[in-house]
Fold this sequence. Notes:
The protein is mostly helical. The chain is built from 14 helices and two strands. Helix 3 packs across helix 14 (264-282), helix 12 (224-237) crosses helix 13 (239-256) and helix 13 (239-256) runs antiparallel to helix 14. The chain is globular and about 60 Å long.
Amino acid sequence: MANTIGNPLSWGAQALGVAGHDVAEVARELGGRTSAEPIVQRITLADIMEALRLGAADFAALRTDVIAACLLYPIAGLALIWAAFHANALPLIFPLLSGFLLLGPAAAIGLYEMSRRREVGLPAGWGDAFRVLQSPRIAVMLVLAAALFMIFFMWIVTAQWIYAATLGPDLPVSVMSFLGALFGTEAGWAMILIGIPVGFIFAAVVLAATVVSFPLLLDRPVGLPMAVMTSLRVTRENPVTVGIWGLIVAVSMAVGAVPFLLGLAVVLPILGHATWHLYRRSVAFKDEPAKPGL
Length: 294
C-alpha cells in the first residue's frame, strides 16, 4: 500500500521538479548566458545584394527540400482567403495577407537553421529545418514569435476598426460591391489613406525589432532583451539600408503572392536564407574572425 501511494507521489514530485527545472531553464535563456555584447556593423546596399545572392545560392542548393517545406505558406494563405470569404470578412483579406510580413521572421527560423548549417559545412536538408526545435533557445524564440502574433492580432483589430470607421459597419455583400465601394467612394479612399500608413507603422516596428533578432537568438545565447535591442541598434545605425531591405521584402512578397500565393514558395525561402546572411553581415562578436566581405 505504501508503495502504491508512494510511487504516484514520487512521480508527481519528480514531474514538478522537471517542470521547475524547465521553467528555470527558459528564464535563464530569456535573460541570456553570455556577457559578450554583439558588435553592430555598418551595412550597405552591397551587403543586401550579397545576402540575396547567398540566399539564392542556399535556395538553389536545397531547392527541392525548401519548396516542399514552403508550399505550406501559400496553402495557409489560401486557407485565410477561404476563411475570410466564408466568414463574410472580405475587408480583412488584405490585412490577413499583409500580416505575412509581420509573422514572416518567426516562420523562417527553420530556413535560418539550414543556412547556418550550410555556412559551417554541416549537412543541410529539409529535415534539418526542424532541428531548430531542438535548440536550447527554442523557448525564447517562441516567446518572440508569440509577441509577433500579438502584433499581428492588433493589426487585424486595427484594420477592422478602420473599416468600421470608414466603409462600415455593414459588411459588403460581394467582392464587386466591396471593390466598387473601396475605389469608387470617398469613404473607400479614406480607408486606403488611413490603412496604408497605419500598416506601415506596424511593419516598421516589426522590421526594426526582428531584422536580426531571430537569427541572433539561434546563433548565440544572448537572451531575448539583447537580441531585440541589437536588432534595434542595427536599424538605428543603418536606417536607410534596413529600410531598403524592408522595401525589398514587401515588394518581393507582393510579387510572390501572384498568382494565388504560389510564388511565395520561392520568395519566402530566398528571403529567409538571405535574412541569415544579412544578420551575419550586420552583427559580429569579438571571439570570431571577420566575416567575408567586411
